[in-house]
Design goal:
The chain is an alpha+beta fold and 311 residues long. The chain has one domain. Helices cover 35% and strands 28% of the residues. The chain is globular, with a radius of gyration of 19 Å.
């Protein structure tokens, strides 16, 4: 679950789409269930995403669909469910920028007996009681590290990289720990969110590195980022927001992104960035640099598929 720096890098790379319009009435990010200490959050509303043209086209894309399918296969293998049919919402978050600790909140029509039976088949499986709840743990074959799980209700499964993260998630959901709605200070830019997104990603800080000096410069000067995506009747609306460390840094990022798009359009009109440039506009307001997007689901799926091919 060490995906915080990869998430932040992808948000900062412009080739990913974002900030949703309010056309859909999708279930929003469950802010009351996410720790107020979260440094990064990813939320996918499967009820809105699964029937969308973006999803269907992404599944059938000639390139990139393998990466997307591998994500679905991971949860299908782990839980024994069909993510597009049985999962209604998937929320991932972490309270650290680096490291392997993270938490997943999985909601939907979950078969408690079948899933716990699946858990029991894994190596070094064990259970323990925590109040009225049962904690499950086993050794993950893919990573060689333990995983922990707990059904908070029959429709909400907590999955985490360690026991402490599961217990903290339980405390957050039950109200004894702060969440994104009641914390006095929240690290990630919650005020940038809009209703109606089937995909939301937020991140605070970046502890990784990038071999590309231009991307490294953007990431170094960005303190937080927000990304959302929605679809209405085959049209994708979105934007990406980068919050710079200062207005001067935001101006520099704005100029770099404009330059990247112009350069891509002149040198390779088929590249993801060039395609994005044709359908979007970049603006700056003090420390915030925003990229707004309006395009067909076909174009959105194409750009996402090509982006998935790059680490």
């Amino acid at each position: 679950m060490n995906c915080s720096h990869r998430l932040f890098a992808r948000i900062g790379r412009v080739a990913i789409l974002v900030m949703a319009g309010s056309h859909l009435h999708a279930a929003p990010l469950p802010k009351s269930q996410v720790s107020g200490d979260a440094k990064w959050v990813v939320h996918l509303d499967m009820e809105q995403f699964a029937p969308s043209q973006t999803c269907r086209l992404l599944m059938g894309a000639k390139s990139g669909s393998k990466s997307f399918q591998s994500i679905l296969n991971h949860y299908q293998t782990l839980l024994g469910v069909d993510p597009l049919k049985d999962i209604s919402g998937l929320t991932l978050y972490g309270t650290e920028i680096t490291g392997n600790r993270g938490t997943a909140l999985i909601s939907g029509a979950l078969n408690y007996r079948a899933i716990t039976k699946q858990f029991s088949s894994y190596p070094q499986y064990a259970t323990r009681t925590y109040g009225k709840l049962t904690l499950h743990t086993w050794m993950d074959k893919a990573t060689g590290r333990p995983l922990w799980a707990c059904f908070h209700t029959t429709r909400l499964l907590i999955l985490a990289s360690d026991e402490g993260s599961v217990l903290n998630a339980v405390a957050t959901i039950e109200g004894s720990r702060t969440n994104l709605t009641n914390a006095k200070t929240v690290a990630i830019p919650m005020q940038t969110l809009r209703q109606g997104a089937f995909f939301t990603a937020l991140s605070k800080g970046y502890a990784g590195s990038d071999s590309d000096p231009v991307k490294a410069l953007i990431l170094k000067n960005t303190e937080a980022a927000a990304m959302q995506l929605s679809e209405n009747r085959g049209i994708v609306d979105g934007s990406i927001l980068l919050r710079a460390i200062s207005p001067e840094a935001a101006t520099q990022i704005h100029q770099i992104l404009n330059g990247l798009m112009v350069s891509a359009s002149l040198t390779d009109s088929s590249s993801p960035i060039a395609k994005l440039a044709e359908m979007s506009e970049i603006s700056q307001n003090e420390k915030d640099v925003s990229l707004k997007l309006h395009c067909s689901a076909s174009d959105a799926a194409s750009i996402l598929a090509e982006t998935m091919l790059t680490p």
